[in-house]
Automatic annotation (TrEMBL):
TonB-dependent receptor plug domain: residues covered: 109-217
Cellular location(s): Cell outer membrane
InterPro entries from the UniProt entry: Beta-barrel_TonB, Beta-barrel_TonB_sf, CarboxyPept-like_regulatory, Plug_dom, Plug_dom_sf, TonB-dep_rcpt-like
Region called Disordered, residue ranges: 554-573
Name of the featured protein: TonB-dependent receptor
Organism from which the protein derives: Mucilaginibacter conchicola
Family affiliation: Belongs to the TonB-dependent receptor family.
Membrane topology according to the record: Multi-pass membrane protein
Length: 809
């Protein structure tokens, strides 16, 4: 249907087009600038090269307007009697701009940092309803995965092998990572991509930012910014696994030259590829802004509500490897009750509300200020069925009924998180000279979180009433940071310096030195210096090198499941980067070398601490070294080819893994002088071939390759004299196999009377029906004198599709 629609001729009298490029006074292209005409009312945006096209226009005279935030509106009159080119050079506006809010923590085109910018248009192309990490899948060094298998619900992202707890995420410069676990859960903000104006993904330590330390990278998100004209977009998507997405976007445009209101409503539902892994996701976004001569004030309120059936444990290898079982690739063991019936409320249920007040002020031609107040309120739980669970796990003693003693029972429990997060961020930018600028920024944030659990019901009486609370942990965390950054241009050389001081205070319920579980605290102080140099060949190409230090605190489990005697140290990263990048009309891309040297990196080794819990421990020496490439070729006006590739080696030196020996209740060591870091593929590649056979239409083939990666740090090595056992047909090594997956995307845009644009889209994911797993876990031990692998894998969906229709007014 999509191919047929793509090839249909546009039934209209239009026959001419206006094309051109929008630049600033220095000649730099302005991506996402707005170009519009009236009669007919058409509004478009420039691409990453600042180019635009308005097609299907009848002959006549038109007033063409070009605008971009922070620049004066430009209007030109043109008489159209054939295809014509119309370029604009915009001059700076007296209005302050919202860009100050995010540029304080962003890299620019001459920064000695590896980064990728994604525009609203880039995101919209792939936004069929999958979670935000999937929209970043074509950026360098990224691996994404989905618990439910199809990208809706809980998803994960790794950058350079580092998981989400080591990837800093900010929304308008405000931290998004959870303060305690340090992960980012985009399922709590479903369809946030529909309210995003642009995203910058940095790799490595990057620039100074707010919130969790960046060890693998940073994801810097900017939400809706000023649009000068009113709009309304209605979008619906539908596809495999009963997946539906409905979104309403609307905005007033600039009213009276000073005010604007934008909003969005979204709902996404899906059954998921995995059995009983459905999602019901709702969200909204409302924003109001005031634009003065020298200041901008914007208030954002956005919220997400998710209810997902759990698929957290993956599929056991002996199930996923046995294709005689009908649902061997979708089997979900969570919530299975006696008799094969599943517990009806095996769910994760969470509501998160965000409030942001963003202020930008232009103090003079040389000084500008941005500040933000923010407040986040989250509350929710996950409910689960526990079969034959011991009452001692809930602080209870066995209950006697006559001659019967109840020490275990089937029960259901809820584990709650009730939290508050609030604070202030700020940045002051000073440009005393055209070749010199400084930024002073920072933040103070507070987090308060209550963790507690209730027994909802028990199959047998265990002496407690309904909603018995069996644990509670009240935590508080404060995070203060201040940074200063300077850039000095000396001819063709640009020198960069960036320094950050960060102080963390954390109060939590944990074990003291006498192994009593009491409220205690920890204070950490970090200094994160960065320095770099860039040599500029011309406005479009440069070469750079940098050195940066990053520090990262342990997470909640590291503190609560240890004592001061066994508590791990913070991690430290020394990051060396060097690269070359260029941007031309035909080719845009770059190459980057990185060497990331870790001190005290935290990993699981199988060791138990003095509390008796599996503990992450510090390893003295580990590193990641590699080379990244990304590029795009505009081969013809209709054909573009893009590719990324990362080749890396990721190693731990002098590593010892311990396996539990159930035969004699000991721990057996595996010593490796040098071993691969888990979840770190040595080769990651992506590619996109896009062809536009007709105006407004595009067919794109998207490819992704991930090499094999280990589930732990042993490289499948076993203790001396021991081999792995199990049914060789089904039981796998502690390994994720390599995979190559291709998606096909078809888009077609056209306009009709009184409608700005109608966009039709089809995306076929995994078109070659590849069976693969993108994530997993392993729990090896020793039984009967042999190593037994308990592996779990997250199977990803085989061939599936999504269709979409968007109508814009």
């Amino acid at each position: 249907m999509a191919l047929a629609a793509l090839l249909l001729p546009v039934v209209a009298s239009a026959q001419f087009s206006i094309t051109g490029k929008i630049t600033d006074q220095s000649g730099e292209a302005l991506a996402n600038a707005t170009v519009s005409i009236t009669n007919p009312n058409i509004n478009t945006q420039t691409d990453g090269r600042g180019s635009y096209t308005i097609s299907n226009l009848p002959a006549g005279t038109y007033a063409v307007k070009a605008s971009f935030i922070g620049f004066q509106l430009a209007t030109k009159s043109i008489t159209l009697n054939g295809n014509q080119t119309l370029n604009f050079v915009l001059t700076n506006n007296v209005f302050t701009t919202e860009e100050v809010t995010v540029t304080a923590t962003r890299a620019n085109k001459t920064s000695p940092t590896a980064f990728t910018n994604l525009s609203k248009k880039d995101l919209q192309k792939n936004n069929f309803g999958q979670d935000l990490p999937y929209l970043l899948n074509q950026t360098p060094s990224v691996v994404v995965t989905s618990d439910a298998g199809a990208g809706v619900g809980y998803t994960g992202i790794r950058i350079r092998g580092s998981d989400a707890s080591r990837v800093n995420v900010t929304i308008n410069g405000i931290p998004y990572n959870d303060s305690e676990s340090q992960g980012s859960f985009f399922v709590d903000l479903p369809d946030i991509a529909s309210s995003v104006n642009n995203i910058q993904v940095q790799r490595g330590v990057g620039t100074s930012t707010n919130g969790a330390g960046a060890f693998g990278g940073s994801i810097n998100i900017q939400t809706t910014t000023r649009r000068d004209t009113g709009y309304a977009d209605i979008s619906s998507s539908a596809g495999s696994f009963n997946t539906f997405k409905n979104t309403l976007n609307f905005g007033t445009g600039l009213m009276g030259g000073k005010f604007a209101v934008d909003g969005r409503l979204s709902q996404i539902t899906s059954d998921g590829y995995i059995d009983d892994a459905s999602s019901n996701l709702k969200s909204y976004f409302v924003s109001g802004a005031y634009y003065g001569k020298n200041n901008t004030l914007r208030a954002n309120i956005f919220s997400g509500k998710e209810r997902t059936f759990q698929a957290w444990n993956g599929i056991p290898d002996y199930i996923i490897g046995d294709n005689t079982i009908p649902n061997h690739r979708t089997y979900n063991e969570l919530g299975m009750m006696d008799g094969g019936k599943r517990y009806a409320d095996q769910v994760d249920d969470y509501l998160q509300n965000h409030y942001q007040l963003l202020y930008d002020h232009k103090l003079s031609d040389k000084v500008s200020f941005s500040g933000a107040l923010h407040y986040t309120r989250g509350k929710g739980y996950y409910e689960e069925y526990k079969k034959n669970d011991s009452v001692s796990n809930y602080g209870l003693k066995p209950v006697n009924y006559g001659t019967d003693t109840i020490s275990t029972t089937n029960l259901a429990r809820r584990r709650w998180l009730d939290n508050y997060f609030y604070g202030v961020t700020y940045a002051l930018k000073y440009n005393p000279q055209t070749n010199l600028n400084f930024t002073l920024g920072g933040a103070y944030n507070e987090y308060k979180g209550a963790h507690y659990g209730n027994i909802i019901y028990s199959e047998q009486g265990i002496g407690v009433g309904p909603n018995y609370q069996y644990y509670r942990d009240d935590a508080k965390k404060t995070d203060f940071n201040i940074f200063t950054r300077g850039e000095w241009r000396l001819g063709d050389v640009i020198l960069n310096a960036d320094m950050q001081y960060r102080r963390i205070y954390y109060s939590f319920l944990g074990y003291d030195r006498n192994l009593n579980n009491v409220q205690q605290n920890a204070t950490l102080n970090f200094f994160n210096p960065k320095a770099g140099i860039t040599y500029v060949f011309n406005e479009n190409s440069n070469v750079y090198a940098s050195y940066a230090v990053g520090n990262h605190e342990p997470n909640r489990d590291d503190y609560t499941n240890s004592s001061p005697n066994s508590r791990p140290k913070p991690e430290t990263l020394h990051d060396f980067e060097a690269g070359y990048r260029t941007a031309g009309d035909v080719f845009k891309g770059g190459i980057n070398l990185f060497y990331m040297l870790y001190k005290n990196q935290l990993i699981l080794t199988g060791a138990l601490n003095d509390v008796g819990s599996p503990a992450r421990v510090n390893v003295d020496d580990s590193y990641r070294a590699g080379i990244e490439f990304d590029g795009r070729v505009q081969a013809t006006k209709q054909l573009s080819i893009a590719a990324t590739a990362t080749i890396s080696t990721n190693k731990i030196k002098n590593y010892t893994q311990l396996l539990k020996n159930y035969d004699d209740d000991t721990r057996v060591p595996i010593f490796l002088k040098k071993t691969d870091i888990a979840y770190s593929p040595s080769f990651i590649a992506s590619g996109e071939i896009a062809y536009a056979p007709v105006k407004g239409g595009e067919i794109a083939l998207l490819n992704k390759y991930i090499s094999s990666q280990y589930l732990d740090n042993t490289m499948n090595t076993n203790p001396a004299g021991l081999t792995a056992t199990g049914d060789n047909r089904f039981v796998r090594d502690r390994l994720l196999k390599s995979y190559f997956v291709s998606d096909l995307r078809v888009r077609y845009n056209f306009a009709v009377k009184h409608v700005k644009n109608i966009a039709l889209g089809v995306q076929v994911n995994n078109i070659f029906n590849k069976e693969y797993e993108a994530n997993g876990a392993t729990y090896p031990d020793i039984e009967g004198g042999q190593v037994v692998n308990y592996n779990y894998f997250f199977a990803q969906a085989k061939r599936n599709f999504m269709t979409s229709v968007t109508v814009s007014f």
